[in-house]
Amino acid sequence: MREIAATWMRGGTSKCWVFRRDDLAVPDLSVDEVLLRLYGSPDARQVDGLGGGTSTTSKAVILAASQAAGVDVEYTFAQVGIEEAKVDWGSNCGNCSAVVAPFAIREGWVAPVDGETVVRVLNTNTGQLIVQKVATPGGVLSEEPTERLPGVPFLGAPVRMGFVDPAGRSTGRLLPSGRPSDVLSAAVGAVRVSLVDAGAPVVAVAAADLGVRGDESPAELDATPGLLGRLDAVRREAGVLMGLAETPEEVERAVPKLALVSTPHPADLDEPPADLTVRMLSMGRFHPAVPVTGSVALTLAGGLPGTVVHELVDDADAATGLRLGTPAGCVETFVESHDGVPVVGITRTYRRLAHGSVVLPDPPLLPSVSA
Amino acid sequence: MREIAATWMRGGTSKCWVFRRDDLAVPDLSVDEVLLRLYGSPDARQVDGLGGGTSTTSKAVILAASQAAGVDVEYTFAQVGIEEAKVDWGSNCGNCSAVVAPFAIREGWVAPVDGETVVRVLNTNTGQLIVQKVATPGGVLSEEPTERLPGVPFLGAPVRMGFVDPAGRSTGRLLPSGRPSDVLSAAVGAVRVSLVDAGAPVVAVAAADLGVRGDESPAELDATPGLLGRLDAVRREAGVLMGLAETPEEVERAVPKLALVSTPHPADLDEPPADLTVRMLSMGRFHPAVPVTGSVALTLAGGLPGTVVHELVDDADAATGLRLGTPAGCVETFVESHDGVPVVGITRTYRRLAHGSVVLPDPPLLPSVSA
């Protein structure tokens, strides 16, 4: 048995356990093995571990101070499998990203200055630099809950996050197919899609082209007969077109993500109104709000003529950011240019829930029985 | 903001945060307010707190060393509301009970002896004394995972628990109506029930009388048209007959519990075979395994001629305990007599998951928006 220092934090609409990278180095065990046992996986309920039995509560954030130029913290995200004994390292989680700056300041990795402190975070999964700003009045980190975030009923402390030059991190190109839109094969219904790689690889589809309004609840969409299956086929064919895999079968569950987009319905306008209504698929189901990385891709797509997103939004809005209408409420993104480099961003809130240590039992690390 | 010492433990098939009673005393706040904010309630996902968004993961165990004769530890159980800003103090959780002895020994409240240490636990919700035994070889608590428990895929450290003289703790009588079985009103279908108060108040019904086999999965039973509604009506009318409330509307959601009982199906016999197949309703849905307190009531009912349980089991089995066939596998209870006092028990496993402190934000304690 071994105790490992850890902090449990909410980042945006996710909950994640946060570890120092060195602390996860356990003799004779891989990090995957350590995480799976800590989280109680594989098990649908994760009853014997830290995991919460849902994709948004089975996440780990692994951090280390960085010596690299222009980087303060190296941040690795792990999606810990629930029913599968597998850790997915292939993508970042934008929501969990929000915990990095406050954790780094509390650890003493970044010295806070009076007012606002900037923390430069390198996500190692994607090579994405994320510049984070948190309030540090008097040179002390403020954890005071002052902001609302759609999907979180309590106020939280804000982290402003800018994704620096996010285009093409996974595929090398903002438009991996080289075109603003593509029509997929007849086998998946010849649906028109825009393939965009920024923050994460995303497939955008007009909701109307799939026979839904686009402002349904995640539960309604999940329950629409045939929809999840068809969207997964669309997503897999699109993944191959984006160069993420050789065959549809090899396309991962986590990426590309898929967004159903539509014009905000006059009857359910947010105040002020959203620019675009979004329902996004994440790990095989509709997301309760919106994945942050997906919102970055949609924001850049909004500024690109010929994409299915651009056709639905106002040019002037898309140039400075978008208000995305999500199942949980309106989420606002921003677009800035710093020395000619585009920065796309969003504000999330966070909260420290618990800290201390977690307990790793001795091997065997796999279940004794299937329960 | 305030940090509160806490330990996260699995007890049986539940996960609970464990607190010292004194640590939950916060100036100007009730314990209910403290727990609700810590757990992130009300919120279906409990995303801003310790709760896991399900009844088996939104539980608190509150402990104090006891000065009372014959008692080592006073144990209070709290079922923390999820979507409702309400803490239920009306019943015990048998699964969570398993964490008490190991926690008390680690705290130094009970001095372990070489071999096996006995911890006498008084549950304050019900007045129930629970005698617990844990392995303490060489006078040191063993947390070594050695036993299987249905519903938990990993091995755990065992706690043997005996409920001392459990009859009538809530109503004053083992058979609160004075009869081994009752026929309810025509309004709920004139169904025959046995009302038993031991461990917790339980309503036992033969599955066949409700038109189901009784060995279906919890999900199948939850989805059976009309079943949950009808069982809740049965449960509420039975609750009034047991004297737990004046009217069906006032009957609590947590108690009485309801058990569908049936003869084990020859085709799905466990090895060795179960004595009784059980599917139990808990907090409005079918339980993934079996509530421990409910298993105590069914065990005593098995020994009482005229109950719907007795009719289904073998007399000799019921005298010493029952093997209950649950959705997660077979759970074994025991019946003993100590100086003429009946003790009904069961073995559960536990694991420490995490420990340190949890963070209580400053007021306001209620959500800023409904999300």
TrEMBL record, chains A, B:
<dbReference type="InterPro" id="IPR007400">
    <property type="entry name" value="PrpF-like"/>
</dbReference>
<comment type="similarity">
    <text>Belongs to the PrpF family.</text>
</comment>
<protein>
    <submittedName>
        <fullName>4-oxalomesaconate tautomerase</fullName>
    </submittedName>
</protein>
<keyword id="KW-0413">Isomerase</keyword>
<dbReference type="Pfam" id="PF04303">
    <property type="entry name" value="PrpF"/>
</dbReference>
